[in-house]
Amino acid sequence: MAEHDLSDARDAGASVNAHADANANMAAIMIGARKLTIEEVVAIAQHRAPVALSTDPAWRARIQRGADFLRRHLAAGATVYGVNTGYGDACVVDVPTELIEALPLQLTRYHGCGMGQHLDDAQTLAVIAARLNSLAYGFSGVRPVLLERLADLINHRVLPRIPAEGSVGASGDLTPLSYVAAALAGERDVKFEGALRDVHDVWAELGLAPLTLAPKEGLALMNGTAVMTGLACLAFARADHLTRLAARLTALSTVALDGRAAHFDATLFEVKPHAGQAEAAGWIRDDLAGRDDTPGHRLQDRYSIRCAPHVIGVARDALTWVRRDVENELNSANDNPLIDPDNERVLHGGNFYGGHIAFAMDALKVAVANLADLMDRQFALLVDVNFNNGLPRNLSGAAPARAAINHGFKAVQISSSAWTAEALKNTMPASVFSRSTESHNQDKVSMGTIAARDCLRVLELTEQVAAAHTLATVQAARLRLRIDSATPVPAPLQRFIDNVSTGSPFVDEDRALESELRALTARIAACDLLDDYRGGSNA
User: Fold this and answer.
1) Which regions of the chain carry the CATH code 1.10.275.10?
2) Shortest CA distance to 368 belongs to which of 474, 270, 236?
3) 2-212: CATH homologous superfamily?
4) Is 536 left (phi over 0), alpha (psi -120 to 50) or beta?
5) Which domain of life does the protein's organism represent (predicted)?
6) How far does Cα 418 stand from its chain's mean position?
């Protein structure tokens, strides 16, 4: 549409500028009159960039025009769902004129029933960014001040406490998003400057007043897919990073097992032309550059090494369409009803339905769990004296005199197997478990938010497997060099070994590795383990 062809932008609105935070010196990510990317949502979520609303006059006029039209439409006696009617199956209930202004706040209040753990800071920021961008599309009938105040939440890190559980993914993420709407209206607690605070006090401290939500603004904030979409953006970035890490660990495992680089020859992947598979093989081949196969070794390495590009490639190729669907949802008007300011129409529909995100997250969690299984199988080869081509049992680095009482990575591999099993168990698709709710009005729902949460849990478990495999593979490579100091270790792999070793020294005598595993898992989740790879894939 025309509004997406506009590119002019401005600094944040006055309310944002008045209380600039520590990120003010960073380049702001512009919201409005342009499309947002997954990487931009991740940058917002990771506190790497503030947001600013576009100053394009046409865009700002369009936002105001939608709110003005809705007011005129109501004044003319029109009936608009959720504005002068009840919600859901109560759409047949007319709301008296004198109660219309009170209706939005009532919506936020009765949806304040979320349960489970609260979203963390990054997840909360991703959710707010997704909701802001959707409302900035210009089809929701909200005022510019509402967009400015959502930007304030991001830029001042005023973080609503959003319970993770309670959304069926249609009519959007109603219950979790009610906590965002309530925060704007001055109700419920928020996290601010590291403390749990009453949001009314926080707004006063910032010199701002809580918003009185205009007709439809409560519904516009809540009746959309922002929670599942924000979480999906974070899931995409982490899955993207894991595919590259799995490729690197395959290359390092090949060195540690004294395996064959020829399994990753480019011709193999030209004649089976799945793009992601070829990409993964190329990464492994680059990491093994300069390593020749030694005659006399096993002719073919086991599947978890030889077929690694084929496993990783499935995830790489999945990420291409996952990006497409997540970014389409991110850059959509997904509430109901929609307000068309150009043709002055109210469109009652179902854009709040999160089916595309649900399916994408269901598929992505399967692809990621397969990475966990791949890495766990490689790990199992490394610790087993029957398959590791002469490495010490369980990768123990103990001196011979103490070898009998040292067990190296035995328990870590058991734990890795447990994490893998749990990741695999969580691949049950959520999107097929639609439940009829709300007096059979919401009788077919997406379960997109549950799918996204499941995907994040699978990612968490897979990152734990990756951390365990990383420590073990680095240990194995160092042990291989003990056996044969002439073993070629290509430069990218040596840098990786050195990087990991700074946080986890060689394991000679057994020690508790929990703290090292936790620290490394955190680095993997933050996508900062690979110093020569920083995400932003072309997937």
Assistant:
1) 2-212
2) 236
3) Fumarase/aspartase (N-terminal domain) (1.10.275.10)
4) left
5) Bacteria
6) 23
SS3 163: strand
Give the span between the Cα atoms of 124 and 263, in whole angstroms.
Answer: 43
Residue 15 preceded by cis peptide, ω within 30? no
Answer for the pair 283, 264: CB distance below 8 angstroms, yes or no.
no
Among residues 160, 156, 136, 155, the alpha carbon closest in space to that of 146 is found at: 136
Domain 231-525 bears CATH identifier 1.10.132.30: no
The alpha carbon dihedral of 283, 288, 292, 293 has a sign of negative
Phi-psi region of 258 (alpha: psi -120 to 50; beta: other; left: phi over 0): left
pTM over 0.70: yes
Q: How far is CA 135 from CA 29, 126, 221, 238, in A?
A: 16, 14, 8, 26
Between the alpha carbon of residue 80 and those of residues 73, 273, 440, the distances in Å are 9, 52, 21
Contact 257, 301 (CB under 8 A): yes
Structure tokens at 311: 């496993």
Given the structure tokens 């729902």, which residue do they identify? 445
Q: How distant is the alpha carbon of residue 348 from its chain centre?
A: 30
Peptide bond into 337 cis (omega under 30): yes
- What residue ranges of the chain are covered by domains with CATH 1.20.200.10? 231-525
Residue 225 phi/psi, 5-degree rounding, is -105, 25
Q: Which is the catalytic residue, given 81, 87, 303, 533?
A: 81
Q: Given its phi and psi angles, is residue 517 left (phi above 0), alpha (psi -120 to 50 degrees) or beta?
A: alpha
pLDDT tens, per residue, the chain with 539 residues: 333 333 333 333 333 333 344 454 579 999 999 999 999 999 999 999 999 999 999 999 999 999 999 999 999 999 998 898 878 777 878 888 888 899 999 889 989 999 999 999 999 999 999 999 999 999 999 999 999 999 999 999 999 999 999 999 998 899 999 999 999 999 999 999 999 999 999 999 999 999 999 999 999 999 999 999 999 999 999 999 999 999 999 999 999 999 999 999 999 999 999 999 999 999 999 999 988 776 556 789 999 999 999 999 999 999 999 999 999 999 999 999 999 999 999 999 999 999 999 999 999 999 999 999 999 999 999 999 999 999 999 999 999 999 999 999 999 999 999 999 999 999 999 999 888 887 777 777 899 999 999 999 999 999 999 999 999 999 999 999 999 999 999 999 999 999 999 999 999 999 999 999 999 999 999 999 987 654 444 44
The number of helices, as runs of H, and strands, as runs of E, in the chain is 19, 9
Q: Where on the phi/psi map is residue 188: left (φ > 0), alpha (ψ -120 to 50), or beta?
A: left
Neighbouring CB atoms inside 10 A of 145's CB total 16
d(CA 173, CA 299) in angstroms, rounded, equals 54
Active site residue 179: no
End-to-end CA distance of the chain, in Å? 25
Cβ neighbour number for residue 377 with a 10 Å cutoff: 18
